[in-house]
Specification:
This protein has a 5-stranded parallel beta sheet with strand order 2-1-3-4-5, sandwiched between helices. A 5-stranded mixed beta sheet has the order 6-8-9-7-10, with helices on both faces. With about 625 residues, the chain is of the alpha/beta class. Helix content is about 50%, strand content about 15%. It is built from 25 helices and 15 strands. It folds into 4 domains: about 120 residues, Response regulator (Rossmann fold, 3-Layer(aba) Sandwich); about 140 residues, Reverse transcriptase/Diguanylate cyclase domain (Alpha-Beta Plaits), CATH 3.30.70.270; about 120 residues, Rossmann fold (3-Layer(aba) Sandwich), CATH 3.40.50.2300; about 170 residues, Hypothetical protein af1432.
């Protein structure tokens, strides 16, 4: 299959040279002299298979150009840069923006083609994901969406648990990329810790398995809830330590090892490797500030907490009461609220309840309670109300800083993942609708005189459903049912569908079987269990004399009763081999006459209202 490449370069010699290399390797090239020309072209034309942009051509507008292009092309179109020198910060920035790779214009033609093919095959060397163990994954949208959604749910469940999060291999592959992007963006450090377990003193396989499982649980409980653990192989454990300074890594490893060996004989040995990455010099995240609101009636507590946080670059807003918080938060949303439990007039618990009731958006703001009370009852009540954590007073500076930063990071990561899930859900819905529309067009194409019939029926049915009070989601569902109501015609011979003369009994029996055949096809789509409804019963009649099952009245599913009216209306207002579209008054009279006989009276009435509003008679085949 020929790949279509868009190439942006103002250098005619370079364009010709690169274009010839690509063309010789079964690639079609369209050239653009600058980014603006490319963007204008993309607004009204199909997507290519890849876009290659010379960074020198777009210059200082490189970032803006990439962002503009991404808005106009589908997610699966890789964007590649020609860039002779790329720093580590550049790689982070472009990777964060979704650039698939940076290529040098000075590499030879074979190497250029090799790297382009690697990008097409999605086999770039993602060292942050594929090392030190090799995980293969097909990266399908559905699997990625499932993993992200599940991980987002896991984070919600994980909020109260003071231990590391355990993920299986496939989940880890997807999640790791988002976490590393997040760490780079917010200027953090990360450490990959790889532990290998060896059987030394026991020959009992069952005992060895038990020890490995026990070690895994030991590691999980020794780490923080912001850390992530996976088991890439049976005898290997990988730990992602988030936001950790290099000087503390040996301390963490030493603590894990010493507590393990203190309780176990040396029946297994544990070797480990450390891979530390620092992104503190990255330009990303330098402008990302954390804003914290502190609510406490004690002036000294407010001053102490403010001093500690502001000294560490955190913006602080202080308040002395829950009432003040409820007023200020209307126009000023923080990243975190530190809320004292014991306050006069309105305590922290009541303040949180009122905040959640007053501001729906406050559900995204994490809350940490401040308390000098060690009561289990206090913690239980706070966690039940949705608090993320508790901090004891008087404050320990390092504890306060770490709790604040980790809570905000966890909250932001969860929000980012939820947004990613929503984005990919929308993409999948759009793809599904496109496939459905293409299938409907293929069905309509079988009949010379029903071009666009399925789409019109779907639109009329959605409008009837909307006027009847269906929710937006249910309107979308009936639209899909309407598009596919005639899918069973795919099994009816074209000669029968397009026969200009009267059909024989056998031929008419073939036509009448299309609802059954359509329902059989659509029942295979388990994700939408009611999808077959419109296909099977849109030819039933309200008086019970329809087909295929002879259902009557409200025994006919409601969606099918709506589609039946829409289908009949379009049949009368469309051109046929034996007649032109019927006059509008004739169509209206027929709908009215068949109300309660062929059609459900409620939906016939709505259809008549739609006809009466269509003064120019535009609601028909064009």
């Amino acid at each position: 299959m020929v790949k279509w490449i868009f190439l942006v370069d103002s250098d005619t010699v370079s364009l010709k040279s690169v274009g010839q290399v690509l063309s010789r390797n079964n690639m079609r090239v369209t050239a653009f002299k600058n980014g603006d020309v490319l963007i204008n072209y993309l607004r009204g034309n199909n997507n290519p298979d890849m876009i290659i942009i010379d960074s020198e051509v777009v210059g200082d507008r490189c970032v803006d150009t990439i962002n503009a292009v991404k808005e106009l092309v589908s997610e699966n179109v890789p964007i590649v840069l020609f860039k002779n020198k790329t720093s580590r910060d550049d790689e982070i920035m472009y990777g964060e923006m979704g650039v698939a790779g940076c290529l040098s214009k000075t590499i030879d033609s074979d190497e250029l083609i090799k790297k382009i093919n690697m990008i097409f095959d999605k086999k770039l060397d993602y060292d942050e994901v594929m090392q030190p163990f090799d995980i293969e994954h097909d990266g399908s949208k559905k699997e990625e969406l499932t993993s992200l959604a599940r991980y987002s749910d896991l984070l919600k469940e994980h909020d109260m648990s003071n231990k590391a999060l355990l993920l299986n291999r496939d989940e880890f592959v997807h999640v790791y990329r988002f976490i590393m992007r997040y760490i780079k963006r917010y200027n953090k450090n990360a450490c990959n810790l790889f532990l290998t377990i060896n059987n030394v003193a026991t020959r009992d396989d069952d005992e060895f398995e038990e020890l490995k499982e026990e070690l895994l649980n030991h590691i999980i409980h020794m780490l923080r809830k912001s850390d992530i653990v996976t088991r890439p192989t049976e005898n290997q454990i990988m730990v992602l330590l988030t936001d950790i300074k290099e000087v503390y890594i040996e301390q963490v490893v030493g603590s894990i090892m010493s507590t393990w060996y203190s309780r176990h004989e040396n029946k297994i040995t544990i070797s480990y490797e450390v891979h530390f990455e620092s992104f503190t010099d990255s330009e990303f995240g330098k402008n990302e500030k954390i804003k914290v609101m502190i609510v406490d009636d004690d002036f000294l507590n407010l001053k102490m907490a403010s001093f500690i946080l502001e000294k560490n670059g955190i913006e602080v807003i202080t308040m002395k009461s829950g009432k003040e918080l409820l007023e200020k938060i209307k126009d000023n949303k923080p990243d975190l609220i530190l809320l004292d439990v014991n306050m006069p007039e309105m305590d922290g618990f009541e303040t949180l309840e009122r905040l959640r009731a007053q501001e729906e958006s406050s559900l995204e703001i994490p809350i940490i309670f401040l308390t000098g009370d060690d009561s289990n009852e206090t913690e239980t009540k706070g966690l039940a109300l949705g608090a993320m954590d508790f901090i004891k007073k008087p404050f320990v500076p390092n504890v306060l800083i770490l709790r604040v930063r980790h809570t905000v990071e966890l909250s932001r990561l969860q929000l980012n993942l939820e947004q990613e899930v929503a984005k990919k859900t929308k993409e999948m819905e759009s793809l599904f609708l496109h496939v459905v529309q293409s299938l409907a067009d293929a069905i309509d194409a079988k009949d010379t005189y029903t071009n666009g019939h399925s789409d019109r029926v779907a639109r009329y049915a959605r409008e009837i459903a909307k006027r009847y009070g269906y929710s937006s989601s249910d309107q979308d569902n009936i639209y899909i049912m309407g598009i596919l109501h005639d899918v069973g015609k795919i099994g009816v011979p074209d000669a029968v569908i397009n026969k200009p003369a009267k059909l024989t009994d056998d031929e008419f029996a073939l036509i009448k079987n299309h609802p059954v055949m359509g329902a059989r096809i659509l029942k295979n789509i388990k994700e939408l269990p009611k999808l077959f409804t419109g296909a099977r019963w849109h030819h039933e009649r309200f008086d019970g004399r329809g087909y295929p099952d002879g259902l009557a009245g409200t025994d006919i599913p409601e969606e099918a009763r709506i589609i039946a009216v829409a289908d009949a209306y379009d049949a009368m207002t469309s051109r046929r081999s034996y007649r032109d579209p019927l006059p509008q008054d004739t169509v209206r009279a027929e709908i009215e006459k068949c109300s309660g006989v062929q059609f459900d009276p409620a939906f016939a009435k709505i259809m008549i209202e739609m006809i009466d509003e269509d003064v120019a008679y535009e609601m028909r085949e064009k």
